[in-house]
Amino acid sequence: MSQEESTEVCRRRRVHPESIAQVRASEINEDTARGLAELFRILGESTRVRILHALSCAELCVCDLSELLEMSPSAVSHQLRLLRANKLVRFRRSGKNVFYSLDDEHVEGLLRQGTEHVLEERTS
Amino acid sequence: MSQEESTEVCRRRRVHPESIAQVRASEINEDTARGLAELFRILGESTRVRILHALSCAELCVCDLSELLEMSPSAVSHQLRLLRANKLVRFRRSGKNVFYSLDDEHVEGLLRQGTEHVLEERTS
DNA sequence: CTTATATATGAACAGGTGTTCAAACGTTTG
DNA sequence: CAAACGTTTGAACACCTGTTCATATATAAG
């Protein structure tokens, strides 16, 4: 607990050790933080948000989504790939079509809670 | 090539009109979708996730965060600027320090719900 | 005043990302 | 079988974003 810091290679600033200790005590797992950021990164793109919103209304094939979003099937498929890899949507093949739907209820919860924040942000 | 669509500029595919109508009926506001994506985009970066997690434990100044994240004050400040602009954190000046904290409880809720998804994703 | 500390900001650069395009794959139909 | 359809995939390209660096601002101390 010595106060002098001159021998330190990296000079210390006048921080708030109690607060820092408090944070360090409840530090989340490094992997969890990374996974969390990854999840939100996937959600953080308007095309993917629109896809997820659409799928929260109905199970849809790539063509349906392509028409709804007015985008090429290829572009939609690329985004669905990402959503699939992150376990946000599931899919089933039926003949020539592949139908997508939301994977679990967490996704809807995140969208709902996010919407609340956005709307509140507007009014204040 | 002989099908009855040749007059359409944009050729229609065999989609599922009922499902599409169902989605269109509950289509969210364009601005809301954009704001939602923007919110998640801000949350979708590991540095910012770590900052928000730290602030969920204690009110911290830039130096504290800089030490916790082992990053330059400049890098931290740049990210805080983004978080501030999106109403995710608030701040108050006290002498030479500027203390940051979470802006509302929605942020903690989003982090918690996101963590649930990530952990569940691991176990399945 | 000058100096030191804490924070903010703008430019620049490297790395990442979404869309387009062309081509492939899988399934159904003729 | 071949042709058509729905979907996927890889490469290319333009755009965006996080960090670094240098510099500026603000407050406190000498």
Notable characteristics:
homodimer, 124 residues, mainly alpha, Arc Repressor Mutant, subunit A, 59% helix, DNA-binding
Overview of the molecule:
The structure is a homodimer of 124-residue chains. Chain A has 124 residues and is mostly helical. In chain A, a hairpin with a 2-residue loop joins strand 2 and strand 3 (97-102). In chain A, strands 1-3-2 form a three-stranded antiparallel sheet. Helices cover 59% and strands 11% of the residues of chain A. In chain A, helix 4 (62-69) crosses helix 5 (73-85). The first copy, chain A, contains six helices and three strands. Chain A has a single domain (30-123), classed as Arc Repressor Mutant, subunit A (Orthogonal Bundle). The termini of chain A are far apart. The relative contact order of chain A is 0.10. Chains A and B meet through helix 1, helix 2, helix 3, strand 1 and helix 4 of A and helix 1, helix 2, helix 3, strand 1 and helix 4 of B. Chain B binds a DNA duplex (30 and 30 nucleotides) through helix 5.
Overall number of strands of chain A: 3
Number of helices of chain A: 6
- Fourth CATH level, the homologous superfamily of chain A: Winged helix-like DNA-binding domain superfamily/Winged helix DNA-binding domain
Our estimate of the beta-strand percent of chain A is 5-15%
CATH-assigned fold name of chain A = Arc Repressor Mutant, subunit A
The two chains with the largest interface, and their residue counts, are:
A-B, 63 and 62 residues
Biggest sheet details of chain A: 3 strands, antiparallel
Instruction: Tell me the structural class of chain A.
Output: mainly alpha
* Tally of structural domains of chain A: 1
| Assembly classification | homodimer
Order of SSEs of chain A: HHHEHHEEH
What's the CATH C level of chain A?
A: Mainly Alpha
CATH architecture descriptor of chain A? Orthogonal Bundle
* Estimated helix fraction of chain A: 55-70%
Strand order of the largest sheet of chain A: 1-3-2
For the record, give the distance between the C-alpha atoms at the N and C termini of chain A, rounded to a whole number.
45 Å
